[in-house]
Design goal:
N-utilizing Substance Protein B Homolog, Chain A; 135 residues; mainly alpha; single chain; globular
Length: 135
């Protein structure tokens, strides 16, 4: 497993816990001992990026996640989408398809087959429309 995949999964752990506890993922990181420093930088980049851009990211999820509102969507799926959308919309050094593929693979591993298909569809729509977004 690549360092970035490990970092995405670790960031997902923090975002999921923060979502359930109604807390800040960044503050949760400060309460934990992190042993793998090689991925810590990317974990923090993801957490800060998601938190900083959460309003815009959640707005896009709400708009393009047809049939689901944020409260009804499983927390794991919601946070997989948040990480992927941060990478797609705000990280210029990563190909959009790689970010989407990683999100789908993580969803397949940690959520349901239906979730993976759903996440793929939402991210696909957003990638197509990305040039029209004013970020």
């Amino acid at each position: 497993m690549s360092a970035r995949r490990k970092a995405r999964k670790r960031a997902l752990d923090f975002l999921y816990e923060a979502d359930i506890r109604n807390a800040s993922a960044i503050e949760l990181v400060g309460t934990r001992e992190e042993s793998e420093l090689s991925e810590r930088d990317y974990v923090m980049e993801l957490l800060v990026g998601v938190e900083t851009n959460k309003a815009k990211i959640d707005e896009l999820i709400t708009t393009y996640a047809q049939g689901w509102d944020m409260d009804r969507m499983p927390a794991i799926d919601r946070n997989i989408l948040r990480i992927a959308l941060f990478e797609i919309l705000f990280k210029g050094d990563l190909d959009d398809q790689i970010a989407a593929s990683e999100a789908v693979e993580i969803a397949t591993e940690l959520s349901t087959d239906d979730s993976a298909k759903y996440i793929n569809g939402v991210l696909g729509r957003i990638i197509i429309l990305k040039p029209s977004f004013a970020l």
